[in-house]
Write a structure and sequence with these properties.
By secondary structure, the chain is an alpha+beta fold. It folds into two domains: 2-77, Glutaredoxin (3-Layer(aba) Sandwich), CATH 3.40.30.10; 87-200, Up-down Bundle (Glutathione S-transferase Yfyf (Class Pi), Chain A, domain 2). It contains nine helices and six strands. The chain has helices spanning 12-23, 38-45, 66-77, 87-102, 105-110, 125-145, 155-169, 176-186, 189-200; strands spanning 2-5, 29-32, 55-58, 61-64, 119-120, 212-213. A four-stranded mixed beta sheet has the order 2-1-3-4, covered by helices on one side. A two-stranded antiparallel ribbon has the order 5-6. The structure holds glutathione (GSH). Glutathione binds next to helix 1.
Length: 216
């Protein structure tokens, strides 16, 4: 199984399926491509119809879109373990995952994932709205489960992992309940492993370098 990903410092979509594979200690070959370069497009167009990462190749099967890749890995290698067992909780976890996959556009464009950066940015109304919705999700789930969003780690935690790193980079302040989830989730060894590798990368993707160096 090969997972094509982008730079660990910048590629938020790549992080999600990578985290799922890593958390479950599944064997896979990582093919890392340097976003925005000719080599990236040459390599990815040979394997992916969307020319985007992440893309998974498993025994000739091509799977693209981060959430579809997570679903495929879960069904094929994890016997469904990566969603909550309870039908109601699974529906809620899938709703939150789909919400992340399809939304939060203001947050995505104003706060690109940039793991090693600490930046000051302008918090517009639409950005605040996205942040407060995520704060509400984290707080509600943390009050109910006190750890991962639905008790055990699941795909929805992978879907929200890049947001934790964005909040760190751009100094987002949250209420205590939401902070409880963020602290718990940032302690995850698999996520820390990704961050450590991101910190060693040298490439700069200029369009993801937003804001000014943090004043603190
Ligand atoms: N909806 C897609 C988004 C994938 C995506 O936009 N990936 C970015 C990197 S994080 C990419 O490949 N960008 C290259 C490009 O758009 O040319 C998913 O969930 O996988």
């Amino acid at each position: 199984m090969e997972l094509y990903i982008g730079n660990k410092n910048y590629s938020s979509w790549s992080l999600r399926p990578w985290l799922l594979l890593e958390k479950h200690k599944l064997k896979f070959q990582e093919v890392k491509l340097d976003l925005g370069t000719k080599d990236f497009y040459d390599a990815i167009k040979a394997v992916s119809p969307t020319t985007k990462v992440p893309t998974l190749i498993d025994d000739g099967l091509v799977v693209w879109e981060s959430l579809a890749i997570c679903e495929y890995i879960n069904e094929t290698y994890l016997s469904g373990e990566a969603w909550p067992h309870n039908n109601t909780l699974r529906a809620q976890a899938r709703s939150l995952s789909a919400e992340m996959h399809s939304g939060f556009n203001a947050l995505r464009s104003a706060m690109p994932m940039n793991v090693r950066a600490k930046r000051d940015i302008v918090f517009t109304e639409s950005l605040e709205k996205d942040i407060r919705r995520i704060e509400q999700i984290f707080a509600e789930q943390f009050c109910q489960f006190g750890g991962w969003l639905f008790g055990d780690w699941s795909i929805v935690d992978a879907m929200y992992a890049p947001v934790l790193l964005r909040f760190q980079s751009y100094g987002v302040t949250l209420n205590d309940e939401a902070k409880g989830y963020v602290k718990h989730a940032l302690d995850c060894p698999a996520l820390q492993k990704w961050c450590a590798m991101a910190a060693c990368e040298q490439e700069i993707v200029a369009c993801n370098e937003v804001g000014a160096p943090a004043s603190l």
